[in-house]
Amino acid sequence: xxxxxxxxxxxxxxxxxxxxxxxxxxxxxxxxxxxxxxxxxxxxxxxxxxxxxxxxxxxxxxxxxxxxxxxxxxxxxxxxxxxxxxxxxxxxxxxxxxxxxxxxxxxxxxxxxxxxxxxxxxxxxxxxxxxxxxxxxxxxxxxxxxxxxxxxxxxxxxxxxxxxxxxxxxxxxxxxxxxxxxxxxxxxxxxxxxxxxxxxxxxxxxxxxxxxxxxxxxxxxxxxxxxxxxxxxxxxxxxxxxxxxxxxxxxxxxxxxxxxxxxxxxxxxxxxxxxxxxxxxxxxxxxxxxxxxxxxxxxxxxxxxxxxxxxxxxxxxxxxxxxxxxxxxxxxxxx
Length: 335
Known about the structure:
By secondary structure, this protein is α+β, with helices and mostly antiparallel strands. It has helices at residues 4-11, 13-16, 23-33, 35-41, 48-61, 64-67, 70-83, 114-123, 184-193, 201-204, 206-219, 226-232, 246-249, 266-271, 273-277, 285-295, 300-314, 324-334; strands spanning 93-100, 105-112, 127-136, 140-144, 150-154, 163-172, 177-183.
């Protein structure tokens, strides 16, 4: 298995030769060279060449992955490979680019999709079957916990209405069962705490991500093998090293701002920054105020353009949520 230093050495080959390949071509060549290592990590039913093609397809669909650090991109691909989950349209796993405020660079986070989570749970050998469904306003639905739990769901055949809840039910091999129901409001709390609440699968595949959320909460109460429990902990992690065991041997390097503790109204931040900044829980209040002072020399459209650019760069809903280090960097860019 290649070490981190060996991977970096492979990445620098073209630079040493005085050639500047495109990011896509660089990753394509690297994946080709690493196919033997990837194949060793894969379950028998999966093929390294297929994993490489799938990863390259994801990069074409989302060019931001090509802007990410190659170490984290490879880490996410190798994590998916070791778990036997294919990133892409099947919903088994996702490669999510985001801005890491610690490294000040774009990195890739590996996320398990709800179908991938179902696959892992079924591999445990303890579960006969597991199902997950959304509940809509016009469905016939009732449930009850307690000494005599019950769950009944009859979906409407048409005009089901808006989704308002999700549930997962697991049937054990011994005939028992367990289920969990979550309201949409419950799911929203988890979405807001995620790395990418306003883009990625939470936007393109909301129902699938909500199903994953309820499964993940139910799994906590199910009999799971140690191997499967460890696999599930790889969800929403960033890995910057390549090891024999990506789950246990490589630490999670994910870094983000938790947006669940406070809702931020973006418009007042742009129009009346001083009032909004008073509410921010970060320690960057003074520096963010200086940023807005710098922006006063621009017209309204230019000011809005710069604000949106900074929010995208640091992956925050509002400049009021910048860390002090990020605010200082942004201020330096404007000076």
